[in-house]
Amino acid sequence: MHGVPWSHLAWKVTEARQDRLAARLDWTRRELLAVLPYRHRMELAVTLCPDTLTMETTMVASLGTGPVPVSFGFHPYLGVPGLPRAQWRLTLPPMQKLVLDRHGIPTGEEEPFGGLDACLGERDLDDGFALLEEETSFSIVGAGRRISVELLAGYRYAQVFTPKDRTTSRSSR
User: Fold this and answer.
1) Global pTM value
2) 52 exposed, middle or buried (CB, 10 Å; 0-12, 13-18, 19+)?
3) Are 129 and 109 in contact (CB under 8 A)?
4) Phi and psi at residue 31, to the nearest 5°
5) Which of 49, 57, 73, 92 has the fewest other C-beta atoms within 10 Å?
6) Could you give phi then psi for residue 8, rounded to 5 degrees?
7) In 28-106, which ranges are continuous DSSP H helix?
8) Which of 140, 129, 149, 138 has the alpha carbon at shortest distance from 168?
9) Closest CA to 124 of 74, 79, 161
10) DSSP state of 132
11) How far apart are CA 36 and CA 67, in angstroms?
12) How close are the terminal C-alpha atoms of the chain, in Å?
């Protein structure tokens, strides 16, 4: 939805409870089709529990239109309050690191990444990965807290972004 004015995104709430919100976006209006000319419906359901936030997305191609060439993801920024970034412990699973050209575009080649379980220290990551497992998780730990992003189904790639000059970390896209 990059490049689409917010006013064009007419989400319709389909369920609203104290712990759950569901909405639907029908990609059928002229101004939306001018950006991406494939009719489809996006559904998003968000459930809040005391220790988790679950976001479920569903993409449905309109009948008779064939597949929809689209990619989407989420950009959570995570941080451990009261603890310097260098002391956060980052845990990443084994994956395949995407090889990039000089413009930062994936070449189609991959190289093994054995995973990580270490303090961030001076690490400065901005890397794309192909996931090896359909269900996988990423986490940061410190000061008696653990914050995890769990990809449960449908995600084949992840971007890990942990810049040295920030106090939050974006762990998945």
Assistant:
1) 0.76
2) exposed
3) no
4) -65, -30
5) 49
6) -85, -15
7) 30-33
8) 140
9) 161
10) S
11) 13
12) 14
Q: How far apart are CA 42 and CA 30, in angstroms?
A: 16
Closest to 12 (Cα-Cα) out of 47, 38, 43, 53: 43
| Rounded distance between C-alpha atoms, residue 61 and residue 38, angstroms | 8
Amino acid at 52: T
Exposure string of 62-89, with b = 16+ CB inside 10 Å and e = fewer, is eeeeeebeeeeeeebebbbeebebeebb
pLDDT tens for the chain, 173 residues long, are 666 777 778 899 999 999 999 999 999 989 888 888 889 999 999 999 999 999 999 988 887 778 888 777 777 888 898 999 999 999 999 999 999 999 988 999 999 999 999 999 999 899 999 999 989 999 999 999 999 999 988 889 999 998 887 655 444 44
With tokens 């972004």, the residue in question is 161
- Residue 130 identity: A
- Tokens for 44, please give them: 């998003």
Length of the chain: 173
